[in-house]
Each structure stands twice: as C-alpha cells, then as structure tokens.
Specification:
By secondary structure, the protein is an alpha/beta fold. It folds into 2 domains: 283 residues, 3-Layer(aba) Sandwich (Aminopeptidase); 129 residues, Aminopeptidase i, Domain 2, CATH 2.30.250.10. It is built from 11 helices and 20 strands. β7 and β8 form a beta hairpin. α9 crosses α11. The longest helix has 16 residues. The radius of gyration is 22 Å and the shape is globular.
C-alpha cells in the first residue's frame, strides 16, 4: 500500500499529539500550545470579548474542554457557522479521592471505572498517572498538571494456574476488589497515603501535606506506533477520540480566511453522558455562539437565521470491519479500515445523521477527493452514541455523525488506518473552507 509522505507525516503528528495528551487536561493543553503557536489568542469567559473579522481565538472551560474559532469574513446571518465537535476524554480508570490502601505488604490505589473501557486490556501494561492536582496556597489553592512518564503502576494478571478457565470464559475483574493498581511495597512506619502522595509532591515541587484534591487517571506509557507490512496502521491509546480532535484541529489550523465563522469544540465527559458544565450537554458551545452573535451585532431574528444556515459535524471514531468477527457486523455496512471516513446512521437517533446531512457530507468528501463509507450497527446489538444528537438538539442545527474506522474501540491500545486520518483531515478542511 502506498502511503503519501504528507499523509504519513499527519499520522506521525497524530501519534505525537496523543503521546503528549495522557489526560483530558493535557489534551486541552496540547491544543492550546498548537493554537497559540498559530496565532490564536486565549479568551476568558469572565471578561468582555471584542471579536473582529478574521479573529482567531480559543476559550477553555474547566481545564478539559476547549472551543477554538475563526471569525468569518462574511455576515454570520448569511453564511451560518461551520462547526466540528469531538471529545477529549477516553474510557479508563480514575483514582478515588482517597485511593491508597495497604494490602498484605503492598500499596494499592483504588480506582473507579470511567466510561466503558475494555478492562482486560489494562492488565500487564506499563501504567502511570496523569491529570491535575490542586495544591494549598496562602490564598487558597493552585492547579498543577502532572504526569509520570515512567511506569508507576501495574494491574498484574492472575496466573493461569489459579484461573484455569480464563481462555474459555474471558478475563474478568471485579471492579471493587480486583482493579486496584499496585504502586509499591509497603514501608515500615510509612502510611500507604504518604507513599502515594510523596511522588506527586516531589514531581511538582510542593509539600505532600499541601496536596488537597486530584483528578488523576491511569494511562499506558507505551508510545504510539505504526504497524502492518507497509506500516499502514497506527496503534495508540485514546484514538477514540483524540484522533478526531487532532483531525479537526489540523483542519482549523490550515484554514486562513474563511467566509463563514469556523468553530471546533472539544468537550470532556462524552464517555459518561456529557451532562456536565464542561460536557456537550452543558452550555459551553451555546454560550460561545451567543457571544459570537452579540459581538457581530445580531438581533434575535438574525441569530436564528445564522443557526438555520449552520452545519455541525460530530466527529467520533467508527467501528472498522474486523475479519475475525464477521457476525458482529450488519450486512452491507462493513466500514473498512483505510477506505475513508464513515457516516454513522441510527434510526433511534443515537447518531444525529439524517439522509440530508449524510448527502451533504458525501458532497464534502467528493469535493475533497476523499472516499467515504456508511455504517449502521447490528439491530440486535446496543448502539453507542455521541455528542451529535446532544449538540444538534440544543442548537437546533442540522448535524451528521462521522468518524474514522478503527479496531478495539475502548481498549487501552486501539488501532486505525494511516490513510483514514489523512482522509478525515481533508474532509474537515473542505468543510471549514466550503
């Protein structure tokens, strides 16, 4: 398979993007860094905004959600908005508020299951911690991002000699008793909590007693990689859904002077329902759009004209056809890896796609010279959902759900196609420049 050099470079940049972003807060920081390098300025929700034509700005809410936009050159009431949405969070294991426990001479960290990860894939991996920590100060507290590059934690498997049916029945963990992560050997005279706190305090240069609260997740320290006989696939954690964030951000950064205002929104908490202040079910995107309209001097009538002429792409990953499990797929709806973006359909509105919006995205792909595919889930299997129906309902704008096909969705080590990532960037770029 021939992989063009520029597409290979885009895939390598995706792997670098993910490797720099082991938590939703790091993902937003990575986006911020790239946006500021491209001349975008940060706005504060607590300040007044002054927006001019061609302005390139972004705003962060809660540290884990970010919206970036370019103000179009033409009246928004005439052109509408071009919006792309994705999410910064991924399923996994999150530390509890008081996680440290001494069990038989070992320090363990208690975790909660966040979203719907494939728990078995976390076993025997080189895990570490990443997220944010709040530290006491004389005036209150400050927030620090923290990550450990070296493996710090592990979830060792039980030997097959003690779990003889594992290959027949599958690897299963009791979420309360069998998922705590091993941190280290207990030390005489040192409490388990101190063993947990001290490395974090040392990493950010504070006293252990000054650590107030944290939001930390376990992540896989193995870097992203190419694989396949022609290196035509990528493997990494968090492809769902940092691959979509990267594709949308790449498209926005490649957009110079669009006629319509272009907006990319990356939300936290999609994997747990989006109902939060930083999630797609909150007010974040509506608040930003209202401020864009107010800055442009649009009255209520023109705001509604703007929304009626807008278009939203919900970009989330799609289920790629797996030749080892053909019975898991709906006939005639096999989304092949490296065969182009997937338009996702569901009659019960788990996806926001309609026949009209699907046709519109097909036209966008044709304009970009990109192939596209269509997917529907087996009727007798529960279908996942996305931010698409949520945002479309709240804003009242036409929406389509699309994604790059992938394997092992919600595994700690997912796979996707190199060509597909390039195709998605091209399609999203055509959307913003259309």
């Amino acid at each position: 398979m021939n992989i063009p050099a520029d597409v290979r470079a885009q895939a390598q940049d995706l792997l670098d993007f993910i490797d720099a972003s082991p938590s939703p807060w790091h993902a937003v920081q990575t986006c911020e860094t790239r946006l500021m390098a491209a001349g975008f300025s940060r706005l504060d929700e607590g300040e007044r905004w002054t927006l001019a034509t061609g302005g390139r700005h972004f705003v962060v809410r809660g540290g884990s959600s970010i919206i970036a936009f370019i103000v179009g050159s033409q009246p928004a009431a005439t052109t509408g908005l071009r919006l792309i949405g994705a999410h910064t969070d991924s399923p996994g294991l999150r530390l509890k508020p008081k996680p440290a426990d001494d069990a038989g001479g070992m320090v363990r960290l208690g975790v909660e299951v966040y979203g719907g990860p494939i728990l078995a894939t976390f076993a025997d991996r080189d895990l570490s911690l990443a997220g944010r920590v709040n530290v006491r100060t004389p005036d209150g507290y400050t927030t620090h991002l923290v990550r450990f590059d070296e493996p710090l934690l592990r979830l060792p498997n039980l030997a097959i000699h003690m779990n003889r049916e594992v290959n027949e029945n599958g690897l299963k963990f009791n979420k309360q008793t069998e998922l705590p992560l091993l941190l280290g050997v207990s030390e005489d005279g040192t409490k388990a909590e101190a063993r947990f706190r001290q490395p974090i305090a040392d990493r950010i240069g504070v006293k252990a007693d000054d650590l107030l609260t944290w939001e930390l997740n376990a992540y896989d320290t193995q870097k992203g990689a190419f694989w396949g006989v022609d290196r035509e696939f990528v493997a990494n954690s968090q492809l769902d859904n940092l691959a979509s964030c990267h594709a949308a951000l790449s498209a926005l950064l490649a957009t110079s002077r669009p006629d319509a205002t272009c907006l990319c929104a990356f939300f936290d908490h999609e994997e747990v329902g989006s109902e939060s202040a930083t999630g797609a079910g909150g007010s974040f995107i509506g608040d930003v759009i209202s401020r864009l309209a107010a800055s442009a001097g649009l009255d209520g009538e023109d705001q509604r004209r703007m929304l009626a002429r807008s278009f939203f792409i919900s970009a989330d990953m799609a289920h790629g056809w797996h030749p080892n499990f053909p019975a898991a797929y709906e006939p005639c709806h096999h989304a092949l890896v490296n065969a182009g973006p997937v338009i996702k359909h569901n009659a019960n509105q788990r996806y926001s796609t309609s026949a009209e919006t699907a046709a519109r995205f097909m036209a966008i792909c044709a304009k970009a010279g990109v192939p596209c595919q269509q997917y529907a889930h087996r009727t007798d299997l529960g279908c996942g959902s996305t931010i698409g129906p949520i945002v479309a309902a709240r804003l009242g704008i036409p929406s389509v759900d699309v994604g790059s096909p992938m394997w092992a969705m919600h595994s700690i080590r997912e796979s996707a196609g190199v060509l597909d990532h390039g195709y998605m960037i091209a399609a999203l770029s055509a959307t913003l420049n259309g």
